[in-house]
Design goal:
2 copies of one chain form a homodimer. Chain A is an alpha+beta fold. In chain A, 49% of the residues lie in helices and 13% in strands. A 3-stranded antiparallel beta sheet of chain A has the order 1-2-3. At the A-B interface, strand 1, strand 2 and strand 3 of A face strand 1, strand 2 and strand 3 of B.
């Protein structure tokens, strides 16, 4: 039974808070903070640091996909897949190394391998627009990749350790 | 029984001729000639076209490993691994796609995958000096990679088709 005095739930913020508690986002945040050599981000919140990963539909449309992807977007792209690899390692104790091959036009492939097993393989395009609609979507996407990878490792345990 | 009139065998040339008949080198040559859009190499022999793949010990030492690897050496590096992939495909009917991640310092990784199987994985360095001492060494190196990859596919046939 809900009491009438309970404050109204704001779903967006609630979802974001929940997302920030997800192991995948915790891993991503840890990786980002590890690159904060001069302590410039010490006073920033986790949500602030992940802010640039959030690209709304409207923002996406405005990002041109001509020319080289921005260095910052490549940095976020790489750190996202590094976080996926690290999360896999945390849960399976198997090193999962990402390897990305992105052309100057923002088109390419991403692979994650453990041992002789390809746990994840994707053709990517429009890397210029790399981002997620909300923090929850970011957490979901990363968690799904980790879960799928672990399912692949469980399907072929021998190859993942070869 | 050898007849005294037989011309003396020159081992180096003999070995090169034999190397040029190797399926791997034939595949490599085919890939190189496929890029000859304007027919500029039509009058060049196979050995001529492969000439730049040959880097002797002395030449290796003279190539500086500072800065970006040359665009030409990157082209040869990529076409070599593409030829490995294509040779695997010719023998197993499984597509083997190379994926290379080379930093600006000529250090990186090369992977070849078929399905979910990593058939070849190597950390490379000093890509600036990519080359082989002789044509036979080039043929040998490529053939060995293809053989090893096929052995891996035979060891894990299910994963290679996943």
């Amino acid at each position: 039974m809900t009491t009438p005095s309970k404050p109204p739930v704001i779903p967006a913020i609630d979802a974001d808070e929940k997302a920030l508690a997800a192991p995948f986002l915790k891993c991503l945040i840890r990786l980002i903070r590890a690159q904060d050599t001069y302590g410039m981000w010490e006073n920033k919140s986790d949500a602030d640091l992940l802010g640039d990963f959030i690209v709304t539909k409207e923002q996406r449309r405005e990002i041109p996909i001509i020319g080289d992807p921005d260095a910052d977007v490549m940095w976020r792209f790489n750190i996202f897949y590094t976080a996926v690899g690290l999360s896999i390692e945390a849960r399976t104790h198997l090193v999962a190394s990402p390897i990305t091959m992105i052309s100057h036009e923002g088109f390419g492939r991403v692979l994650l391998t453990t041992g002789r097993l390809v746990v994840f393989s994707k053709t990517v395009r429009d890397v210029h627009r790399f981002g997620f609609a909300t923090l929850s979507k970011l957490a979901e996407a990363g968690t799904k990749l980790v879960d799928d990878a672990i399912a692949a490792i469980e399907a072929y345990p021998e190859v993942a350790r070869a």
